[in-house]
Write a structure and sequence with these properties.
4 strands, 12% strand, 5 helices, alpha+beta, 4-stranded mixed sheet, globular, 142 residues
Length: 142
């Protein structure tokens, strides 16, 4: 199947896709900030450049788009009909990089939380999950 857009139109469209400060990412940051967490964003010294870093709790949060990072079982994780080989290779690289970065961070002693875009429909559950991980790794007296 061929692309329905010209090369220039497709290029313009793809250039609009943001990698940082996306709406889902901002929603998670707002949620954490509202309940009192302080954090850093896009820390380049850590593997994968996590979206949110809570240094006090040695916890990082990746906010993944279901389409780009292939959330299993999610209806947003569809496959494009054109350029199938390109997309399958791209998705495989994304998944492999995500796995590698999680492994490296855990090896460095960080707790890793992945929040999927579709989970933000229930922010209370997202916050409960992050709190649960932070509470498990928080040291007494903090």
């Amino acid at each position: 199947m061929t692309d329905t857009l010209t090369v220039a139109e497709r290029s313009r469209l793809m250039a609009k896709i943001k990698g940082k400060n996306t709406r889902p990412e901002i929603a998670v940051r707002s949620l954490l900030h509202r309940v009192g967490y302080r954090f850093r964003i896009h820390v380049s010294s850590l593997p994968g450049r996590p979206d949110i870093v809570l240094p006090k709790y040695r916890t990082v949060v990746f906010v993944h788009g279901c389409f780009w990072h292939r959330h299993k079982g999610c209806k947003a994780s569809t496959n494009p009909k054109s350029h199938k080989r390109f997309w399958s290779d791209k998705f495989a690289r994304n998944i492999a990089n995500d796995k590698k970065h999680r492994r490296q961070l855990r090896h460095m002693g960080w707790k890793v939380v992945t929040v999927w875009q579709c989970q933000l429909k229930r922010p209370d559950l997202v916050l409960r999950r992050i709190n649960g991980i932070i509470c498990r790794c928080a040291k007494p007296g903090r």
